[in-house]
Amino acid sequence: MECSMTKVEIELFMREFADDYESKEMLRLLGRHPYCRFNLQALADSLGMKPKDLGRTINRLQEKGLVRTFESKDKALYALTENEAWRDLITKTAALDYRQMANLESVP
């Protein structure tokens, strides 16, 4: 899939907001499902990670305004930001396949 974003825009975004593996993978998952809400266990299962290891990542992405939380009596749900500019950028980045991402990340 082609993306209208430039390589530089994607690189800057990834460096600024998804500078670690967990953040990158969580944003790619949420970007592929921009209107879904996930509980912690669903995120962990989808990402192949332990729920306790996702806490820092969720907090980091919330602080950056990229992930929002919906609290209920018994559990929290997590979703992509409502900010349309960020949402658009994240969904476009998520549409890139791993080969395209690897090519971007290997460019100096």
TrEMBL record:
<protein>
    <recommendedName>
        <fullName>MarR family protein</fullName>
    </recommendedName>
</protein>
<dbReference type="InterPro" id="IPR036390">
    <property type="entry name" value="WH_DNA-bd_sf"/>
</dbReference>
<dbReference type="InterPro" id="IPR036388">
    <property type="entry name" value="WH-like_DNA-bd_sf"/>
</dbReference>
